[in-house]
Design a protein that fits this description.
By secondary structure, the chain is mainly α. The protein has one domain. Helix content is 49%, strand content 6%. Strands 1-2 form a two-stranded antiparallel ribbon. Strand 1 and strand 2 form a beta hairpin. Helix 4 packs parallel to helix 6 and helix 6 runs parallel beside helix 8. The longest helix is centred in the N-terminal third of the chain and has 16 residues.
Length: 197
């Protein structure tokens, strides 16, 4: 966990490692993980470090850990859309300690007339498809409207990592169990996309 504080850019790799350990049933001190992630948010939110804060919020969400009220209030002031979408997900699942901040300013940003065509397009789009807003600004934008009618989501509620069942004695783990990433190729009407996950 020290790597999260010393090198916050390691968030993605720390998440992959913790998720694997958690799924295998390894002991993880979730209180320490919660405190560490809240420290990361506290330090980076006021600096507008969206990458680091979004990973910390995502990890809190995935492990069902609470975000402090003070940190949530800091995130509300961030410009990063991903952080605001994750903050809303934490709020919806009651994973923000009381008193939870008022998210009306965030919703207002998503509903703003020009939000769907400026830096807040992702916030406007996701809040519209999630039903947080009516999405008039999204349906008025032809490209976003097409994405919406086709059910495209940029933030999908990902299920929390489930602990795996213990393997029968002698049963081998899949070959990819120790690899950090798996290459995934997706083919669609727009072409072929290869990415690591």
């Amino acid at each position: 966990m020290a790597s999260l504080l010393v090198d916050p850019s390691s968030c993605k790799f720390v998440f992959v490692a913790f998720e694997r350990l958690y799924k295998k049933g390894s002991s993880i001190d979730l209180d320490v993980l919660d405190a560490t992630l809240n420290d990361v948010v506290e330090f980076h939110a006021h600096l507008q470090h969206g990458y680091v804060v979004s990973w910390a919020l995502f990890m809190l969400h995935q492990f069902g850990l609470p975000l402090s009220s003070a940190n949530a209030s800091q995130v509300v002031t961030m410009s990063d859309n991903t952080c605001l979408i994750l903050l809303h997900a934490l709020d919806r699942e009651s994973l923000i300690e009381a008193p939870a901040p008022n998210l009306s300013a965030v919703v207002a940003r998503a509903e703003a007339a020009g939000a769907a065509i400026d830096a807040d397009w992702l916030l406007a789009y996701e809040f519209a498809v999630q039903g947080v807003t009516k999405g008039a600004n999204v349906t008025a934008e032809p490209l976003l409207s097409v994405l919406s009618t086709r059910g495209v989501r940029f933030f999908d509620e990902v299920s929390r990592p489930a602990r795996s069942m213990e393997r029968e004695s002698g049963e081998e783990e899949p070959e990819y169990a120790d690899e950090a990433f798996v290459e995934v190729t997706v083919r669609d009407a727009m072409g072929t996309w290869t990415y690591m996950r």
